[in-house]
Write a structure and sequence with these properties.
single chain; 473 residues; alpha/beta; Rossmann fold; 3 domains; 4-stranded parallel β-sheet; 19 helices
């Protein structure tokens, strides 16, 4: 899948925990060039696709969408197409690579909820119900297929780009939630499900509704305790409310932030997918202009792109120990794109944030942080040097942001059992029962048709009864 490393990084804390528990864990996704190791004792089966490059890190069209566009439902689900092309190529031209993995006997197959056609094929070939892994929140269409009873009207849409705000008391906001949920269901049910069905037709018959509806379990990374109220179920677990232990800064980073003239450290990092080579000049100039004014701080910027004219108080580096820098007591602020992993690292390190969300669910993550009062949000379309500097100084100089993120961290930690312990426990239970728990553990409503799910039969009965009474008069 084109976004394999990004999503795999989200799953890694749970997978590393399973390795610690003594399980043999293998990770598979397609790659188009050699990758850095995932670490943690996980066995890697990363298939290098030959003769085809669908990577998005150097894709000018994708970069233009990230920096200048808005990702709605259609754009958000579009990666199913290149991931299907990649899977087709693998099955046709590198079948041995696929079958070497698929023909092994797996006790449990965990598949990404998004963009993983060959992952679904491995699960089908394994012959056991799969576990669905969600790299962020549980998508509404999957909640519907699994009959989790989640009302899309009561939560912000995944792609919150219309206003960058959401209020449940606002009719238009509720409308956007239900509109996006219906669009997602229609796209997945008709277009994407059939695309994947055709892609892996040689492995078995596939429909998304059946695949998800029969899944053994769903694990998702979103920290629901700081989100919105949603119904939970026996077979859905949030494994993402955990904080790793940071390492003390050493070497050039420790030396840089130890400057006695510094009032603190600011970290700026926009994730691994963001390509600064394609960033609009107005955006780069605005950020550089603002950072150059903050000479009383030491600024570390995760940056890989054209040469920048920055002052000596700014360090540019292609790769950063992000969480270690955030956890350093001298760090005062995080400037981020709003990815879920970055949001959780801000909470775990108790660091206030200024967000410049770019695509996917990042606007919603930034909005959530702002509603918890530990962040400010800047619209990428109207970003200026003045707005960047103003928001940076506002968050750093007002200690209410720091107090707010500490409060959120306390909510994050307030659990009877850690989320990784919880995830580990349920994996053990699934293995005990050969991949799926007894039938009484699951909701019988998961087998309902759309006709029954939305009470259409009752609605028709009421309508017929009303008409009967009306015509009697």
């Amino acid at each position: 899948m084109p976004q394999g490393r990004s999503h795999a990084g989200t799953f890694m804390p749970l997978l590393h925990r399973l390795v610690e528990d003594g399980h043999n864990v293998t990770v598979y996704f397609d790659i188009y060039r050699p990758e850095l190791p995932l670490g943690g004792g996980v066995e890697e089966n990363l298939v290098l696709i030959k003769g085809l490059d669908l990577s998005i890190d150097n894709d000018a069209e994708f970069a233009n969408m990230v920096w200048n566009g808005e990702v709605g439902v259609v754009g958000g689900l579009f990666p199913f197409y290149p991931s299907s092309l990649s899977c087709q190529h693998l099955l046709k031209h590198q079948a041995n690579d696929f079958w070497r993995l698929a023909n092994q006997s797996w006790d449990l197959v965990l598949t990404d909820s998004l963009f993983a056609p060959c992952g679904y094929a491995i699960a089908l070939n394994n012959g056991k119900p799969a576990v669905i892994m969600h790299a962020t929140d549980l998508e509404n269409v999957f909640a519907y297929y699994s009959s989790y009873g989640r009302n899309p009207v009561l939560s912000p849409p995944l792609f919150l780009y219309d206003t960058m705000e959401w209020n449940i008391s606002n009719f238009y906001d509720r409308y956007t939630s239900i509109r996006d949920a219906v669009k997602s269901l229609m796209l997945v049910d008709f277009a994407i499900s059939n695309l994947i069905r055709w892609t892996i037709r040689s492995i078995g018959d596939f429909t998304f509704s059946e695949y998800v509806g029969q899944a053994a379990f769903s694990f998702y990374d979103f920290p629901h305790s700081i989100g919105w109220t949603v119904p939970l179920a026996n077979d859905i677990i949030s494994y993402g409310m955990s904080c790793k232990k940071p390492k003390p800064l050493t070497g050039k980073y420790a030396k840089f932030v130890s400057d006695p003239k510094s009032r603190g450290t600011i970290l700026i990092a926009f994730g691994t997918i963001t390509n600064w080579d394609f960033a609009p000049k107005r955006v780069v100039d605005a950020i550089v202009g603002a950072l150059n004014e903050l000479t009383d701080y030491r600024i570390i910027w995760g940056y890989k792109g054209p040469k920048l004219d920055v002052k000596d108080h700014i360090m540019l580096d292609e790769w950063l120990p992000q969480f270690d820098i955030l956890s350093d007591p001298r760090t005062k602020l995080f400037i981020s794109h709003g990815g879920l992993k970055s949001m959780k690292e801000a909470i775990c390190s108790e660091t206030p944030v200024v967000y410049v969300p770019l695509f996917a669910e990042q606007v919603r993550n930034a909005w959530l942080a702002k509603t918890h009062s530990f962040a400010e949000v800047i619209d990428k379309k109207t970003l200026t040097a003045g707005s960047v500097e103003r928001n940076i100084r506002k968050v750093i100089e007002d200690d209410s942001y720091s107090k707010a993120v500490k409060r959120v961290r306390s909510i994050f930690d307030d659990r009877p059992i850690s989320s990784l312990d919880d995830g580990s426990f349920w994996v053990q239970r699934l293995l005990k029962y050969n991949g799926k728990l007894p039938g009484y553990f699951y909701r019988t409503s998961a087998r309902n048709s759309i006709f029954h799910h939305f009470y259409m039969d009752i609605g028709i009965l009421i309508l017929v009864s009303f008409c009967f009474v009306a015509f009697q008069k």
